Amino acid sequence: MAHPENRNGRGQGHGFVAALLLVLTVAATWPLALHLGTHVPGDPNDPGDYWAYYWDLWWVEDALLGLRNPFHTSLLHQPDGADLYFHSLMLAPSALMAPVTALLGPTISYNILVWLSFAGSAFGIYLLARRILGPGGSREAALLGGVMYAFSAYRFSRMMGHLDLLSTEWLPFAALFLLRCAREGGWANAAGLAVFTMLTGLTNWYLTGGLVLLVCVFLFERCWSEGGAAGARMFTRIAPPLLIAAAATSPSWLGIFRASGRGGRLGDPFGDTLANSADLLGFVLPSSAHPLWGRAIDGIRTALFGPGDNVVENTVFLGFVPLTLALLGWRDARSSEARTFRWVWILFLLLSLGPHLKVLGHTVRIGPWAVSMPYFLLYQLPYGTLAHAPSRFVLIGGIGLAVLAALGAQRLLVRKGALAATFLPAAGCLALFETAAVPYPLASVHIPAAYDHLTGPANSVVLEAPIPDSPAQLPQRMLYQTRHGRAVFGGYLSRGVPPQPFEALPGFREIRSLTLDGADIDHISGSILPAAARVVLRAYGAADVVLLKNDFRYLPGLNDAAPRARVVLADLLGAPAYEDDEAAVFSVAQAEAPAFASPERGFLPLEQASANPQRTVLSHARIGLWAPRDGHYEIGFAGRALTESRGVELRFVDGVVAPLFFAANAGEVRYSRELKRGWQLVELTCLMPGLPGSAMEGDAPCLVLSGLRMTEDPM
Question: Could you tell me the pTM of the whole model?
Fold first, then answer.
């Protein structure tokens, strides 16, 4: 048992280290300290992912206080809401900061998390390195390892927008308790391993996957160096806390498994993986964010990698000081625990290079074959295509680099005496200098005043114009929702964007296309279009349309479209209820319109914009019907079946299923029935030819329609 004075001295030493790391954090993130309540780290001229993480803090606090499931929200992507299993939800940090978010707001909470990620990561590596250095190991060398890890170039690049990847503070503690639990056992070490593994698992899945691989590396090293019996003993000690952590994080990963990965699939997973892989040269190419030589590095990057260089993902500079010290410490990593970090460094750097080796932006080939890297094996595993940024494994490899660098620093202290004691502080300063990114760019937390002038009730939905092709083009709207708190039709998610009713419905389509002249297959005439638009918008809960005039500059080809958008909205909805230089609020009033039918989902874009437009219908689609009063109505379809004649079923909200038949040649199909007043959605399902009652699988093209109408039938 340690003497009380030793424990007190150790505590005072740790306290001094923690305070020093906080001071370094404030300096390295300058001028954030001057703007804690008004700005967050990010590009002020190009809204980015940081607003999605800002929203995470707000949403998790709101969900926890409201006792709601944080993995699903009805506030985004109306009318369906959105699952957040594939979104970078950052649940653990957001939940821990919920009291701060509730009391001081998301801005303060966000910036505290940024600071804690730096100081916490450095302190965790410091404690981990102290263990590896052994009894009597150098506190200064361990501290140097922590500083080099936390203030690395890649972490500074993550600070620009990916707060979840910046939140590496749990990883070194998980590694530390892994070593303790495996070697010494004990409930405290097991609890520490379970807690920090759980925190990692509820922060980011890349970090979680890296931690799982780190555990595998440790098991392999223990079995290799000490035999299978030692490996088995270690496994029996670490398995229970790891299983507890898996159970605690199961709501997250079970949601992914239940969805079979569908919500996280990418259009071109292998292409994305290649684009987000590290370049071998990147390990020794300094960051373009450096205050002195950053501009020169920018020019070098353009010359080497071309204009398509992914600067954020390929800023993987390891630092010349850490590299030198790590190479010096390589031979001193003699214990089984220390040797593990040799493997961690090398393996994760290799994984960060992605499936194929790239040098100078070009894939290295031997003849016609690309040189494959270890990540190619991970890509072949089930769900392996969900990950798309191998370069992020640098964050795990950096732990091995930092531990080896601490060993190298201690070697200098032992062999060079007083000279080395002077050199180490200088080495620390030089390591900080070569990855410096000050002054760090800050984005103002600014929300247009228009959101304080919404006219609808608190449970209504807000439609924001312009409507982008992808919500990722306008991530700042996630920030805006933290002010108005109402449901919206869009929303920037990492993955799994649900289908939206923007393409074909009256009101939505005019606001998206910024024109009132576009004919569609429902042939709604201009005289009733404003009323039909208001009927549809109100049916989807929209009470306000907010025109964000400055958003057009972020959409290609629409920089000067704000005046045109204002005219379209005024013609549809009337004069704005509020307007300033930034935005205008249009109230969606109740309206009455004649009966009409319109395509909703499962329809491909217009094939011709003319008096006789056509839309291809997928095998599973929906149409919207507006009945102005209770009565008998006739629904008519003008079009044909693709390839061959087929049956179609219409399923109404009251459960009635209407069988229809479409021939391969153009014609009109009609169906009549009683309908209640109001708006309803009808499911349209195409059947397999020759197999009555058997629905087509997937979303294959099925019909081509040139007309869709509904009229009152007096019978």
Answer: 0.93
